[in-house]
Amino acid sequence: MSQHETVWVVDDDRSIRWVLEKAVEKEGWACQSFTDGESLLQRLQRDKPTVIVSDVRMEGMDGLALMREIHAMHPDIPVIIMTAHSDLDSAVASFQGGAFEYLPKPFDITEAIDLVKRAMEHAREQQQEIVEPERQAAQEIIGEAPAMQEVFRAIGRLSHSNITVLINGESGTGKELVAQALHRHSPRRDKPFIALNMAAIPRDLIESELFGHEKGAFTGASGQRPGRFEQANGGTLFLDEIGDMPAETQTRLLRVLADSEFYRVGGHTAIKVDVRIIAATHQNLEGLVREGRFREDLFHRLNVIRIHIPRLADRREDIPRLLNYFLGRAATELGVEAKLLRQETVEFLASLPWPGNVRQLENTCRWITVMASGREVFINDLPPELIAEEQVRETGSHWVDNLKFWADRELTQGHQGILDMAVPLFEQAMIDVALKHTAGRRRDAAQLLGWGRNTLTRKIKELGMVTEGGDDDGDD
Ligand SMILES: Nc1ncnc2c1ncn2[C@@H]1O[C@H](COP(=O)(O)OP(=O)(O)OP(=O)(O)O)[C@@H](O)[C@H]1O
């Protein structure tokens, strides 16, 4: 790119200015940095950069106010807003304020430069759409991990639209939380958000739950009742565990989505609704479609925009912050002082597999708050099943890792047939330990190993092992 490309950087942090300046100049672009928004605006009276990179929080005018001023004069200048990590509010506000992108701090410098490049290309292509920012108080979603930042971006990008979204992620990863955020940051924010979990309702009640029923429509339908679709009119209907929706309901839902109208169970009058659908599943919907368990046409209707929420084990860097957050919340809920995790406890917790994802971690924090005796929490204060599980995993993976290391080294040295070497060593080790546990009694040792006694005797011979008990236990 030529010298005509100019990047302006505004941040009250000197080191950020310096790093960006160096990187921008290295790309062959001109760089001008400012310590505050006011001086940038002054300069903007007479000059115009290609791209502006601004911090969101600054003394005096903040980044979002600055962006408004910039865009009032030059709607076509792309502005990249730097935000603190996991600050969903600013992220969304910056998109709503018309930011080209937001850049969570601390950032990778190549990532920052890539963004600037994209902004330059974009500036060449088109003008930015300007919308006044509307700040919304959002329930906190914690996520510094790159995959969560992607989720935040998606929420920001979708904040002007009513588009159907399909959220994928294991149970407890925060699908409902994200669905709520999508709603809260959408044009429907003042209308209802209604959630319904397909897996939690008896199958034969799903239709009446969704579409309501007329009096006497089925046994037990004593009065007329509106369904969730009606309740969600104008707003958002969140259908959790959509993969569990019965086939007949899928067919009905598809029709509702196509016609924006439906009939209550047992009803004859069509009811018009305007509902945005956000669906979620932990299942592989494509797989269900292939197996004929989910309607393909419905799948395509729902799968317009897909948001994937990673497993907690794939964003371990967020665990310490989540622990803090949930310990604080649990303490407030229970009206007690918040527990403090020792560093090794945090590290231990951050290393666990968390099959129940964020929900399991949240529950663990409640458990700790109630059960741990002191204020400071040691590893031994944790729920016993977490500690036990970890011990098995630790020792379990350790020797396998060592074995892999050994095999790798043997192969690197050009050895062949390594199982011939490894298997006898493995068997000898197991036999040794088993015999130690039974004070040399082979019959019992064989049982510990899961072999018949004759097999053990034969193995000991084949391996040429010398054992204390000799050839026989003397017990037969
Ligand atoms: N990133 C996060 N930050 C803060 N809280 C979170 C986060 N993710 C999940 N939670 C909390 O964890 C719990 C589980 O989240 P949620 O109900 O959204 O998960 P889900 O994926 O919809 O689960 P399921 O599929 O089992 O219904 C909730 O209490 C939610 O508030």
UniProtKB/TrEMBL annotation:
All residue ranges annotated as the Response regulatory domain in the record: 6-120
Domain Sigma-54 factor interaction: 141-370
Gene3D superfamilies: 1.10.8.60, 3.40.50.2300, Homeodomain-like, P-loop containing nucleotide triphosphate hydrolases
Modified residue annotations for 4-aspartylphosphate: D55
Pfam annotation, one family: AAA_lid_14
Keywords, ordered alphabetically: Activator, ATP-binding, Cytoplasm, DNA-binding, Nitrogen fixation, Nucleotide-binding, Phosphoprotein, Repressor, Transcription, Transcription regulation, Two-component regulatory system
Family annotation (InterPro entries): AAA+_ATPase, AAA_lid_NorR, CheY-like_superfamily, Homeodomain-like_sf, HTH_Fis, P-loop_NTPase, Sig_transdc_resp-reg_receiver, Sigma_54_int
SMART domains reported in the protein's UniProt record: AAA (SM00382), REC (SM00448)
Primary site of residence: cytoplasm
Compartments where found: Cytoplasm
PANTHER family: DNA-BINDING TRANSCRIPTIONAL REGULATOR NTRC (PTHR32071:SF95), TRANSCRIPTIONAL REGULATORY PROTEIN (PTHR32071)
Described purpose of this protein according to its UniProt entry: Member of the two-component regulatory system NtrB/NtrC, which controls expression of the nitrogen-regulated (ntr) genes in response to nitrogen limitation. Phosphorylated NtrC binds directly to DNA and stimulates the formation of open promoter-sigma54-RNA polymerase complexes.
Protein name: DNA-binding transcriptional regulator NtrC
Organism whose genome encodes this protein: Saccharospirillum mangrovi
